[in-house]
Design brief:
With 236 residues, the protein is an alpha/beta fold. The protein has one domain: P-loop containing nucleotide triphosphate hydrolases (Rossmann fold), CATH 3.40.50. It has helices at residues 58-65, 88-98, 116-127, 133-142, 158-170, 188-203, 215-220, and strands spanning 15-27, 30-42, 47-51, 73-78, 81-82, 99-102, 176-180, 207-211, 223-228, 231-235. A hairpin with a 2-residue loop joins strand 9 and strand 10 (231-235). Helix 3 runs parallel beside helix 5 (158-170) and helix 5 (158-170) packs parallel to helix 6. The radius of gyration is 17 Å and the shape is globular.
């Protein structure tokens, strides 16, 4: 294990954060610096686990990578695009076309009135790709959801909801999939199914980064990055 201290983005990285900072104002006279000069490169087809105590900056970093928020300073390059300089509308469009974002609560990743199959059609429209029926059926079969294509989210178990969210994110093979505690509410057997799905996406070239407290996720990741007090302390 060694500290990582890059100062230039890697040319072959899907994502490069350079000296990235983020501060939140919690009152008129008080602020909290959530990220303090983060430097991180994420490469195509890799699975990275972000670990660290609550309040270490993991979720803040994920929100920046997912183009939900912008940093106060520094660069965030995704496929060479400087997302930190994008307007809100451009970030929304970029996120829909090139990114996937999974929330911690499985139900929050899905739209309650759409079936699993309708989620896939919506994802294809947002990403500007065509979705062949056979492609959708193959994806659902790989994720163990072949018999759930016509089910609404409330009719799915927590593990099925999370795998449906992965399917939703996988259409069109996004450049980056960002996941916040993707296994936090799942049982042991279902965790393995979700991580198998992540592995299949990574082999297809998707870059995956997940904030987690789950040691199984860290064990299965290609790389573990430890955050403490808004900084990256270790990279292994």
């Amino acid at each position: 294990m060694s500290p990582i201290r890059p100062r230039k983005p890697a040319g072959d990285a899907t994502v490069s954060c350079v000296d990235t900072t983020r501060t939140y104002r919690i009152s008129a006279d008080d602020t909290v610096q959530a990220l303090k000069g983060v430097n991180l490169d994420l490469h195509p087809g890799s699975v990275t686990a972000l670990i660290g105590p609550s309040g270490s900056g993991k979720s803040t970093l994920l929100r920046l990578l997912a183009c939900v928020d912008r940093p106060d300073s520094g660069l965030i390059l995704i496929q060479g695009r400087d997302t930190a300089r994008m307007s809100r509308s451009r970030r929304v469009k970029f996120r829909r076309r090139r990114l996937g974002y999974m929330f911690q609560n499985p139900a929050d990743n899905l739209i309650e009135y759409l079936t699993v199959r309708q989620h896939l059609r919506l994802a294809a429209r947002m990403r500007g790709v065509s979705l062949r029926r056979r492609e959708a059926e193959d994806l659902l079969e790989r994720l163990g959801l072949a018999g759930r294509a016509n089910s609404l989210p409330r009719q799915l178990s927590g593990g099925e909801q999370q795998r449906a969210a992965i399917a939703f994110a996988a259409i069109g093979l996004p450049a980056l999939l960002v996941a916040d505690e993707p296994t936090g509410q799942l049982d042991h057997d279902t965790v393995g199914d979700v991580l198998d799905a992540f592995g299949a996406l990574a082999r297809a070239g998707v870059t995956i980064v997940a904030a987690t407290h789950d040691p199984i996720v860290a064990q299965r990741a290609d790389r573990v990055v430890h955050m403490v007090d808004g900084r990256i302390e270790e990279d292994q």
